[in-house]
Amino acid sequence: MALRLKESTFFKTIKFKLSALFCSFTITLSILAGVTFYDYKKDFLFNQLKENAGTLSKNLAINAGAALLDSDEMQLSVLVFTELKNPSVLSAAILDHEGKALIHSDIKKIGDAVLPENSFQEKLDIPKENQLKEIKPIFVNGKKIGTALLTMDISPVLKKVDTLKMGLFTATLAFICFGCYLIIHVIGNLLEPLGVLSQAAVKIGHGDLSVRIHENGGEEIRKLSNVFNKMTEGLDHANRNAEEGYLQSVMALSAAVEASDPYTRGHCDRVAYYSEQIALHMEMDKAFVKKLVLAGQLHDLGKIGVDKEILCKPGHLDSDEFDHIARHPMIAWQILESVQFLTKERDIIIVHHERFDGKGYPKGLCGDQICPAGKILAVADCYDAMTSNRPYRRHMDEKKALEIIKGERGKQFDPDIVNAFLEAHAFFEDRESLDKRLEISSRGRVWCYDETFSEADQNTNLAVLN
User: Fold this and answer.
1) In what order do the strands lie in the sheet with 143-153?
2) 261-463 belongs to which homologous superfamily?
């Protein structure tokens, strides 16, 4: 199966596309400018050498005319060797009308045919030996009687051209780097507000409606930011109203559960309070505590799907009845499944009857498979259940309830959570004050089962603590 590399989103951004466009333009323009300047400067240097050679050879031809007419070899020699004083001149010669050297700076070439007859060079020439030959005809009374020949050294010019080439390459490369950096920087600054808007839109798309944009930049950006903020505020307000509506509906369901079972009235509020105190003692962050408290208030929501006769049964539950009531965490999870903003709370609620040793329900999770908030909620739920009246037993005193929780350390409960609970317990608000503040009954309805259940029956039913 063919594999495709995932294309980076950076290469799809406006910043990359504009930067690539302007950088390509800058690179192309810089290279063209560098090549054009190089060609111009090279031609200028060679033309300068050509003009200098032409001037020298022309002066030699004019001065040699009379001496050549008089066959004055001494004067011709003086003229030829005078040209060698110029460091750019490699050799000089006076040729006859047949192109043979009458006088030559290289004595060995005197008498040799240096140029074919009637040859005349006007075009710039660069031979292999880095030499430039410049010839001028010698005229007397309109008649050509010979030729003046100069051979020029072009090595200095070639060195200047090489130096020019390296200098231009370095300058062009530096200009391209600086230009591209400047372009990317400028485009980045210009598009920064759009990037902020884009990031804000992504956050909103993921459900974060608290995003706001500072209204800075150009007039257009400020107007767009203002409209964006107003739109976000509108969405946030509408979302809060919707969440509040959902939450009120869910809380109403939870209240309906407590209303149908007078023994658990106020239970959810107390569990939320105890869970909050444990979490604060453990120095959990505010977001964690907030979700834990809400999960505590809703943790028994699933009991709305439990048969009331089983829920309020004063006797011991058989296995089928226990399986029936053990469904309530899953029922709560299903009820809250479509409420997206309660996803975290739902995940806490479904594990509040899991045990640290893996013998809980509904999934039999153990140890770190259970989230910390779920472990805290389990201890708080059990503590309140034991210290409240239930159909199958009276409430226990604080000392006995604490001893049972200590005994379940490492079994039903996480040892660290139990330790935190025991430390936080000393700071719990007393039960009567708490119930009064929460406006709930202290112990559920008055008990009338003294003659019905023995202490042994109550201990038997400790397996169903809540």
Assistant:
1) 101-104, 89-95, 143-153, 131-140
2) Hypothetical protein af1432 (1.10.3210.10)
